[in-house]
Amino acid sequence: MFSRYASLLLLLLSGLLLGTACQKESDPTPVSSLEQILRDNPEYSTLYAGLRKTNLLPALQQSKFLTVLAPTNAAFAELSGTPYTTATSIMALQDVGQIEQLRRVLQYHLLPEQALNEVAEVEHKQFTTLLPAAGAAGNQLYLWYFSGKIALNGLYTAWTDARGQHTVGGVVHALPHVLLPPARTLAEEVRQRAADGAEYGLFWEALQRPVAAPVLALLSDAQRDYTLLLPSNGGLLRTLRRMNPAWTSVAAVPDAALLRLLQLHCLPTRLPSYLLFKNDRNPTLAGSQWDYALDFHGGFDLFGLKPYDASCQVMPHTNRHRLSEQEHPHLVALDQTATNGIIHLLDDAVQP
Predict the structure, then answer these.
(1) CATH number corresponding to 186-346
(2) What's the pLDDT tens digit per position in 107-154?
């Protein structure tokens, strides 16, 4: 009898020991830290080298919670003509200015104590990066949520998965492109395009007229946020001729008409691509009345990431039926960031 009880007790003890062993084997392994994920994933080797070279690894280790927007090696390889294309080239950097520039770029990808899932709850949101502030928007990221994906700084800059890779101390979101922080005001961006001989430099000539001084001052104000609709040189000249056949150059336009034209291309708020069609009437510097507010008509193919063919039109509300579809300006490039706002490029000018 005793031996039978002893055998039963031994069987029970064996089951308990086996259960404990199985439980230990099924326990989840400790979650990796942010640094471990970036160090151990070969797709992030260039990013990890950059964080080492710029002494930003302590930011990963010391932050309570950090969102890392992580450009892949392929994203860094797109930066041709720079010393930031590979881990090897980054670790070989000796120039202090180049290292500081890389540090600023990487700081723009770090969001302390902020999570991208906040965007899904409110559709779009503004985030503050680790980059020191420079102007109204110099260290800000603007994110928009759509169908499990998040667009950063507009629809055409970069997208990432809203879920990311969660870890101890934060979350990592892979990026297909490197985000470059804005370095110039809107006025400086237009001036640079003119200096480069770009197709959008004639607008700068108009801003040099004395009557345009108030508009130029606003576009130079680093503490405000504006949207600039920048027409091409050819488009601006076509619009001037439609307004008056004698206006064959910017110099030929009377002061009052030129000022009104410039004001119609400036909106006193940041209007990224994903908000263009949200309102029927968008006030400009010319005013909020129907004659001066702008309508944006059309839409975006969010899966092809492009505007619907020739349908993104910009017009003063009262011009909707007066001008033909070909005479309305169309958006051709979007979301060019500046430290105090955003630029959308037009193929024509907005006609008063």
Answers:
(1) 2.30.180.10
(2) 999 999 999 888 876 688 889 999 987 666 678 898 888 888 898 988
User: What residue ranges of the chain have pLDDT lower than 70?
Assistant: 1-31, 121-122, 134-137, 279-280, 290-291, 297-327
pTM: 0.81
Q: 3-class DSSP state for residue 76?
A: helix
Spell out the residues 6+ positions from residue 352 whose beta carbon is closer than 8 angstroms to its own.
243, 257, 260, 261, 264, 286, 291, 316
DSSP secondary structure letter of residue 32: P
Label the pairing between strands 226-231 and 341-346. Answer: parallel
Domains of the chain, by residue range, sit at 34-175, 186-346
Q: What gap in Å lies between CA 336 and CA 351, rounded to an integer?
A: 22
Which 3 state secondary structure label does DSSP give 63? coil
Q: Please tell me the distance from the alpha carbon of residue 163 to that of residue 277, in angstroms, as a whole number.
A: 27
Long-range CB pairs of 76-84 (<8 Å, 24+ gap) are: 76/46, 76/47, 76/50, 76/178, 77/46, 78/177, 78/178, 79/178, 84/46, 84/50, 84/178
Helix (H/G/I), strand (E/B), else coil: 33 = strand
What integer pLDDT is reported at residue 323 of this predicted model? 47
Cα distances (angstroms) measured from residue 256 to each of 131, 132, 210, 228, 291: 41, 40, 11, 20, 16
Phi first, then psi, for residue 113 (nearest 5°) are 55, 40
Which residues face 167 on adjacent strands?
Answer: 170
Q: What DSSP string describes 197-212?
A: T-TT-HHHHHHTSGGG
Is 326:347 a contact under the CB 8 Å cutoff? no
How far, in Å, CA of 268 to CA of 271, rounded?
9
Fold for the domain defined by 34-175: FAS1 domain (2.30.180)
Query: In sequence order, what are the residues at sequence separation of 6 or more whose Cβ sits closer than 8 angstroms to the Cβ of residue 241?
Result: 247, 248
Q: Do the first three CATH levels of 34-175 and 186-346 match, i.e. the same topology?
A: yes
Phi, psi of 336 (to 5 degrees): -85, 110
